[in-house]
UniProtKB/TrEMBL annotation:
<feature type="transmembrane region" description="Helical">
    <location>
        <begin position="16"/>
        <end position="41"/>
    </location>
</feature>
<feature type="transmembrane region" description="Helical">
    <location>
        <begin position="265"/>
        <end position="285"/>
    </location>
</feature>
<dbReference type="GO" id="GO:0005886">
    <property type="term" value="C:plasma membrane"/>
</dbReference>
<feature type="transmembrane region" description="Helical">
    <location>
        <begin position="354"/>
        <end position="372"/>
    </location>
</feature>
<dbReference type="InterPro" id="IPR036259">
    <property type="entry name" value="MFS_trans_sf"/>
</dbReference>
<keyword id="KW-1133">Transmembrane helix</keyword>
<feature type="transmembrane region" description="Helical">
    <location>
        <begin position="80"/>
        <end position="101"/>
    </location>
</feature>
<feature type="transmembrane region" description="Helical">
    <location>
        <begin position="172"/>
        <end position="193"/>
    </location>
</feature>
<feature type="transmembrane region" description="Helical">
    <location>
        <begin position="297"/>
        <end position="314"/>
    </location>
</feature>
<dbReference type="InterPro" id="IPR011701">
    <property type="entry name" value="MFS"/>
</dbReference>
<dbReference type="Pfam" id="PF07690">
    <property type="entry name" value="MFS_1"/>
</dbReference>
<keyword id="KW-0472">Membrane</keyword>
<feature type="transmembrane region" description="Helical">
    <location>
        <begin position="384"/>
        <end position="407"/>
    </location>
</feature>
<feature type="transmembrane region" description="Helical">
    <location>
        <begin position="320"/>
        <end position="342"/>
    </location>
</feature>
<keyword id="KW-1003">Cell membrane</keyword>
<keyword id="KW-0813">Transport</keyword>
<dbReference type="GO" id="GO:0022857">
    <property type="term" value="F:transmembrane transporter activity"/>
</dbReference>
């Protein structure tokens, strides 16, 4: 065991980006699988209920299992967790490949695989995020977050058309098999890279009571950081209002702009292009000195973009494209610094729990927001919800910047890491 300062690791880029590239391949495979399975369900059933069920299956693990899997991430070796999660997801996909190849695939097969893949994600995501904070110097965390946002933007634009193209050329089991190859790349790049582990107190036997105690400890940890708790509460509220707005985008296209599927595709591309450019801008710029200032500036910009989108005249579709492009650009400016702040200020041995608690709140907010948005949009018009979502961003940014505990969150004494030093103990 040894104490290290991450800034002293002159070669941190090589091991981190080897893993990062491997995970990028894995994400490509995951998006292709998701596209292929959703399209198969659509083609085979034509049922909105089945598609809604598939969405729920993909969200349930994050809501109900996330807090507990986060506690396990903080107990176990994070590299091992990522290896097992990637391997398990690939194994489930391989089973589905076999079922499709035999011509025996049924809806429940697909739903079970989607559930297990989502379950694997509840372990993999916090393990990767927590590992990033142990491999990347704090001053570069915002840039890495920007790269992650840009990568997601690129893949969200490129992968669905690629999936559609592959589905037109290949049987579905061959498309699914691509995910096995990309998972193998991710596992191969990860297997030979050392990932530091946080110093942990001696853990007793893992029992349900001990696991629940770990989860409660995560809640208590956040409760003792008022600024962090307030910031996460605001982020959850914004997500509750913003997520339905983008889910209602198809109705915005048809009801307001009298558009077709092509218009929706162009709208999604404009958003994705904005995310790419915003992520690249953040990776080069790095943000303001205070991450909270960067994030709130992004939130204001995102709110203005959504308001512009909701206010675009029916005959001026280009204005709507500009609005969603601005919102997309500001998305990584908003979220990237928040992730960097969590990675920099949350104790390494607590990050698994905290990241999954945040994820559980976000996942739970989305369906609740949809339940609220649907009747509001039907009664008051689809534009009204976009205005609500946009104004909420402006209000939340103003409130956050008026609360000293939030503004000075990075100044909290005893933070796990600060520039140029570390009290972090890692295990080989």
């Amino acid at each position: 065991m040894m104490s290290v300062t991450i800034d002293e690791r002159s070669n941190w880029k090589r091991p981190f980006f080897i893993i990062w590239i491997g995970q990028a391949f894995s994400i490509v495979g995951s998006i292709l699988v998701q596209f292929a399975l959703v399209w198969w369900l659509t083609r085979e059933t034509g049922s909105a209920t089945v598609l809604a069920t598939a969405t729920i299956f993909s969200m349930l693990p994050g809501i109900f299992i996330g807090p507990f899997s986060g506690a396990l991430v903080d107990r176990w070796n994070r590299k091992t967790i990522m290896l097992v999660a990637d391997s398990l997801i690939a194994l489930m996909t391989a089973g589905l490949v076999l079922v499709f190849w035999m011509g025996q695939a049924q809806v429940w097969h697909v739903l079970v695989v989607m559930l297990v893949r989502a379950l694997g994600g509840t372990f993999h995501f916090p393990a990767m995020q927590a590992s990033t904070s142990l491999m990347v110097p704090e001053k570069h965390l915002s840039r890495v977050a920007g790269l992650n946002q840009a990568l997601n933007g690129v893949l969200n634009i490129a992968a669905p058309p690629l999936g559609a193209f592959l589905m037109s050329l290949l049987p579905i089991y061959q498309v699914l098999a691509i995910d096995i190859v990309t998972a193998a790349i991710a596992v191969g790049t990860l297997a030979f890279i050392h990932i530091p582990q946080p110093k942990r107190r001696p853990e007793g036997v893992l029992t349900p009571q001990a696991l629940w105690g770990d989860v409660r400890e995560g809640f208590r940890y956040l409760a003792h950081w008022p600024g962090m708790l307030i910031l996460l509460g605001m982020a959850t509220l914004v997500n509750l209002l913003m997520s339905p707005a983008f889910s209602l985008m198809p109705l915005m296209i048809t009801r307001v702009f009298k558009g077709e599927a092509m218009h929706l595709g162009v709208m999604n591309s404009a958003e994705g292009l904005g995310v790419i450019l915003g992520g690249l801008a953040l990776s080069v710029w790095g943000g303001f000195k205070r991450k909270v200032h960067t994030s709130m500036a992004g939130l204001v910009g995102m709110g203005l973009g959504v308001i512009l989108l909701g206010s675009a005249p029916a005959q001026m579709f280009g204005v709507a494209l500009l609005g969603i492009g601005i919102a997309g650009f500001m998305n990584p400016i908003t979220n990237g610094p928040l992730f960097a702040l969590l990675q920099a200020k949350i104790a390494p041995e607590m990050q698994g729990r905290v990241f999954n608690l945040v994820g559980a709140l976000a996942s739970a907010a989305s369906p609740l927001g949809l339940m609220l948005a649907a009747p509001v949009a039907d009664y008051l018009g689809i534009r009204f919800w976009f205005w609500i979502a946009g104004v909420s961003c402006l209000v939340m940014a103003g409130v956050a910047l008026s609360i000293p505990a939030v503004v000075h969150l990075e100044d909290v004494s005893g933070a796990p890491r600060s520039e140029g030093r570390s009290a972090l103990a890692v295990q080989d």
